Amino acid sequence: METLLQQTLNGLVAGSIYALVALGYTMVYGILGLINFAHGEIVMVGALVALQTILFLSSAVPGLPPLVLLLAGVVVAVPACMALGYLIERIGYRRLRNAPRLAPLITAIGVSFLLQTLAMIIWGREFHVFPQLIDTAPMQPVDGVVVSPMQIFTIVVAFTLMGGLMLLVNKSRLGRAMRATAENHRVAGLMGINANGVIAATFIIGSGLAALAGVLFASNYAIAHYSMGFTPGLKAFTAAVLGGIGNLPGAMVGGLVLGLVESFGAGYIEHLSFGFLNSSYQDIFAFMILGAVLIFRPSGLLGERVADRA
Amino acid sequence: MKANKLFIAPAVACLAASLAAGTVQAKEVVVRIGHAGPLSGPAAAFGKDGENGARLAIEDANAKKLQIGGDSVKFELVSEDDQADPRTATTVAQRLTDAGVKGVVGHVTSGASVPAARIYENAGIPMITPSSTSPKLTQQGYKMTFRVIANDLQQGNALGKYAVEQLKATRIAVIDDRTAYGQGLADAFANAVKAAGGQVVGREFTNDKATDFMAILTKVRAANPDVVFYGGMDAQSGPLTRQMKQLGLTAKFLTGDGGCTGEMIKMAGDALSATTYCTQAGIPLDKMPGGTAFRTQFKQRYGSDIHVYAPYSYDATMALIEAMKVANSVEPTKYQPALKALNAQGVTGPLAFDQSGDIKGGAITVYNFSGGRWAPLQTLQ
Hints:
The structure holds two protein chains of two kinds.
Chain A: H1 2-32, H2 39-60, H3 66-93, H4 102-123, E1 139-142, E2 145-147, H5 149-171, H6 173-183, H7 185-190, H8 195-221, H9 230-243, H10 248-272, H11 282-296
Antiparallel strand pairs in A: 1-2
Helix pairs in contact in A: 1-5, 1-8, 1-9, 1-10, 2-3, 2-4, 2-8, 2-9, 3-8, 5-6, 5-8, 6-8, 9-10, 10-11
Chain B: H1 2-24, E1 28-37, H2 44-63, E2 67-68, E3 71-81, H3 86-98, E4 103-106, H4 110-123, E5 127-129, E6 145-147, H5 152-165, E7 171-176, H6 180-195, E8 199-205, H7 214-222, E9 227-231, H8 234-246, E10 252-255, H9 262-268, E11 276-281, H10 291-302, H11 310-327, H12 332-340, E12 344-345, E13 350-351, E14 364-370, E15 373-380
Parallel strand pairs in B: 1-3, 1-4, 4-5, 5-6, 7-8, 7-9, 9-10, 10-11
Antiparallel strand pairs in B: 2-3, 11-14, 12-13, 14-15
Helix pairs in contact in B: 2-11, 3-4, 5-6, 8-9, 11-12
């Protein structure tokens, strides 16, 4: 029972980071019908920029409290990634908006390579240690189950951000404009909505979330590296598809479900298969679930929500 | 005319003298020995170290003015850069065979040694690697492949025995990263644990790009092990030990040479303790029979310290030369049997090879984390 609870907690932590990243994929897809494969690299840039800021500050002003350092890292990383997201959209994708769908897709893969290589040049190939500024010492709320302040922080931040995004999209003027643009950006333009502005805002918000996800990821695992964005990016994309791509609550549910499935997969696949399979099938297990969901619900758990472009 | 005569006379005398000397002194032949390893890229320090060791051996041999097969032999080092890259390694191997080397010291990394071995095998030139530890290298069934350092299987075996016999562990969990290195090491470890009477209570897997080990560690924790073994590299074992601490998993942690690095100390941070152990193939320099003398000689010659494998590279070169002496021939086909049957004393210890070309009784050293670094605890043979 303790193991079950512990695995649930592990899954929630990983899943809430996936969910934050998945939101970026799904928002862009919802509006442009584009899979922005460079999104995972924004996670990486966010983590590395925050790391750079924290290292700089802690050597320039010794004795700053850890929370201030972390906050400073976030305050620099989030706008940096927002600017990066905007630039990618402005330079890479905007000209291709009316091109065949394959063109922006290939561009996205190219941008991903470009960002990774640039990061490799700037930060080198080595693994960096990301300082764990929030305590990771285990606490035992229930006997046999441990949770660290860092994990609680991760879950709380992720859920707050997701809630905030839902409010923004459903209640604000910008959100209404985003929903209208998702329906049909040309018609939205006729209604007096600045479609380019809304699309840029989508990239900016998604990139900001990705930067935060990067900082959370790096703080949890104390690691930062130029290729660290690839795996969470792929997992988050999977999560977005699992929940129904284009669907915001779907991305959140998809992320959490994927995190939990992975965690339980690693923990229980051996028992479930009577020792035939083991934890090296952890990822395969997650993709089997994805396959099964897509067979029975081709548009994901909560359904795809893409405007009909007929 | 007169002047000419005067000139010719000493010239003739000189010629006569040199001819006479020729009949007494053996003619000098140049024997080329190849060295291959990374001289550029991230592993360049290892390649340079190997090259320095080999050069020192060759200078020592030349100073002895050896006579082999009636000729006085002068050895010459031909050093090539394989960039630790499998494809470059094969090109370099071809270049060395074309240059007519009689033996090769190298390659340095396993990834380069394994494909290069085939080229030396086909060319009939013995190669002795000072530092590649992949078991695969000597499992290819080649007659010309040798190594002077313990391989990963020997490392896994030694660690497994150490865990059960010295650390008195009974419940042992084994994790690996599913790479050829990690899996090979972990399998050898698990088998040795069982052979020594220990119990493997968990066998988990991850991959060499993973950062999140919470799920498998939670499962491992439920099995309540007293030792956790990881077969893989420092980039994973660092975060893995942190997450063990985070989960309150207090078992001892063991890993192989992939985690026995400064990088591991950096990545793992305060998760390391005196109950974190790792192994390196070979023995610390101070414990080698000729270690202290070698360090002094090396420092004098190059003005810098030994990186890691220079003594092994020195011994590999000496093994080649020793076999040539025993066989009284520098021809690879003639001296290969002598190399196979070699029984010599090197800087690092006795030099003798088993059937597959691996060093007999290769040493493994266990380290633990103490005083901010890896401190040698014990050398296992």
